[in-house]
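Project outcomes to date are best conveyed with an example. Our students and postdoctoral researchers have been running inverse folding experiments weekly, and each run begins with a structure described purely in tokens. The record below, which covers 258 residues, was selected by the lab manager from last quarter's runs and is presented without edits.
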């Protein structure tokens, strides 16, 4: 599964590079990281992503593609060691922001999909529209906020032990519900070579409330290349008894701006 995904990411990077050079309305960044260990413990972790912003007269559009794949060496009851996939997650999203007359305000339309083989839910699709504004805007700090209604369609894991009100298994079943979305996006340009970012997003629904946070520090290596250290937290209020409510991820990646 990881090879086709990495191929798509590489092709998207090449295409984005061509567009970014030919059209200055595009801002494109790609992110990649890999960790491979051997010896007493063998693990392989691959992480990548692409973000593209298209700035037009009346619209600011944003496109995102992210993925992570991890394999660990597992020892079974007979003492035999083998590699086993322990994490695999892909996400894609598109957002269009229609600029309003007031500076730094917009209406947004959003659509996103997450495929997670080991998360609380096997897949989640979200559509939303709402209003966005900027609370802080100065030479070093920016704080943007968005809020609006939406709809989520999600599928339970095939091995889920959750049951409905009648005691029927929800494994592999799909449900949908209206939700409310809110997001805060903060950035602080600490110096010419260092930037701190904090993203907090909440999806509130009757079945589940999902909260996502990313805390990151970016340091510039040269004009186009940065190193990124990030800590991600995803919390689901309602999960199966065999699942954890909170997932965390610490990553070190390289970010290239076209």
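After processing, the design step wrote out the following sequence:
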């Amino acid at each position: 599964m990881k090879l086709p995904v990495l191929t798509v990411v590489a092709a998207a990077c090449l295409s984005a590079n061509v567009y970014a050079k030919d059209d200055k309305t595009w801002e494109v960044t790609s992110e990649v990281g890999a960790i491979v260990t051997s010896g007493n413990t063998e693990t392989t972790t691959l992480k990548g992503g692409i973000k593209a912003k298209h700035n037009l007269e009346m619209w600011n559009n944003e496109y995102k593609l992210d993925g992570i794949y991890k394999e660990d060496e597992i020892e079974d009851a007979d003492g035999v060691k083998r590699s086993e996939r322990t994490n695999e997650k892909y996400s894609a999203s598109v957002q269009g922001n229609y600029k309003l007359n007031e500076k730094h305000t917009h209406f947004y339309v959003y659509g996103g999909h997450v495929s997670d083989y080991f998360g609380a839910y096997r897949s989640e699709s979200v559509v939303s529209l709402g209003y966005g504004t900027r609370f802080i805007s100065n030479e070093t700090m920016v704080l943007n906020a968005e809020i609006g209604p939406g709809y989520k369609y999600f599928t339970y894991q095939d091995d889920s032990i959750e049951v409905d009100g009648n005691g029927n298994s929800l494994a592999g079943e799909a449900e949908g519900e209206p939700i409310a979305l809110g997001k805060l996006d903060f950035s602080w340009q600490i110096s010419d070579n260092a930037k701190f970012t904090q993203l907090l997003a909440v999806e509130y629904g009757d079945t589940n409330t999902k909260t996502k946070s990313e805390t990151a520090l970016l340091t510039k290596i040269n004009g186009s290349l940065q190193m990124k250290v990030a800590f991600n937290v995803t919390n689901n209020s309602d999960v199966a008894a065999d699942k954890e409510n909170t997932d965390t991820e610490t990553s070190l990646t390289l970010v290239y701006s076209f």
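Residues 6-11 have pLDDT under 50 and may be disordered. The chain has one helix and twelve strands. The training component of this project remains on track.
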